[in-house]
Amino acid sequence: MTLSTSLTDLQVDESIQLEQQGSILTMWLNRPESRNAMSLNMVNAIQQVFNQIADDVSIRAVILRGKGGHFCAGGDIKDMAALRVEAANVGSLQPYVDFNRRFGAMIEQVDQAPQTVVVILEGAVLGGGFGLACVSDVAISRDTAQFGLPETGLGVLPAQIAPFVVKRIGLTQARRLALLGSRFNGETAQKLGVVHDVVHDENELEQLLSDTVQQIKRAAPLASRNTKALLHRTLNEPLDSLLDDAAQQFAQAVGGVEGQEGTMAFIQKRLPTWTDEQ
After folding, report:
1. How far apart are CA 124 and CA 64, in angstroms?
2. What is the mean pLDDT of the segment spanning 62-68?
3. In this predicted structure, what is the pLDDT of residue 278?
4. Could you tell me if 115 and 138 are in contact, meaning their C-beta atoms sit under 8 angstroms apart?
5. Fold entry, domain 219-275
6. What are the domain boundaries of the chain?
7. Which residue of 50, 62, 140, 143 has the fewest C-beta atoms within 10 A of its own C-beta?
8. Mean pLDDT across the stretch 42-67?
9. Average per-residue pLDDT in the chain?
10. Structure confidence at residue 3 as a pLDDT band (50, 70, 90)
11. Comparing 16-217 with 219-275, is the CATH topology the same?
């Protein structure tokens, strides 16, 4: 696919691959030999892309998926071995701290991205991969995908993803999953609220993804970005002031280009102009 000018010039690590079709950017996690385990290079590359597109209204959705039949098997053990050597050399645990915190910053960035983030979950969805699933706007899973938080079984903590898991499925379920390290499939993940839809074969997956993309294009670009930001604010801000500000945003939207076009399209029984893109 042809990338927009800003993304064409972006030099990203080979641990991810980018494809763009119009306003839809697909980011492939590209370490199939390790079930797309999350290396520091991959973390940095994901941040690099989301930094680049943060203010780009022409990019309306980012689809995250993994090469080789797996989404992401968690953190890369090889990176941990390298960190052990670095920590020994400097006589400090700081390399571990910096690495772990960088991963948390990436997860937060994906969570707060103004674009609609869609994840396609296949194969391993473990640890950090589970965390990415929990910050998506739309999560589509194969029934055979394997979810889990294996950290405690490895003698470590799900340190950076824990808050996002709790926000996704609630404290009670998060405690059970994190402390037992249980593995579960896509249908159980749907019951827990991790994923929204479960499909049973590749054709069904691609059809649902196509339908989802069309729905994303049906939403007005600025209204979609502003709505996502407003939804995030509901978790942290006092209700009265939030509703006051939301009323102001609503008024601006109604009188804006998108509001006028959307209203006119409804009256004229046609699709708004922002759906014209193929």
Report:
1. 14
2. 98
3. 44
4. no
5. Lyase 2-enoyl-coa Hydratase; Chain  A, domain 2 (1.10.12)
6. 16-217, 219-275
7. 143
8. 97
9. 94
10. low
11. no
Asked if residue 162 lies in contact with residue 138, where contact means CB atoms within 8 angstroms, the answer is no
Contact 4, 59 (CB under 8 A): yes
Alpha-carbon distance of 109 to 117, in angstroms, equals 11
> How much of the chain exceeds pLDDT 90, in percent?
90
pLDDT at position 190: 98
Tokens of 250: 């609503």
Q: What percentage of the chain exceeds 70 in pLDDT?
A: 96
Place of tokens 């992401």: 72
Cβ atoms 40, 100 nearer than 8 A: no
pTM for the model: 0.94
Q: Which residue has the tokens 């989802």?
A: 212
Paired sense of beta strands 24-29 and 61-66, if any: parallel
Question: According to CATH, what is the number of the domain 16-217?
Answer: 3.90.226.10
Residue 105 tokens read as 């910053």
One-letter amino acid at 109 equals: Q
Indicate whether 225 pLDDT > 50. yes
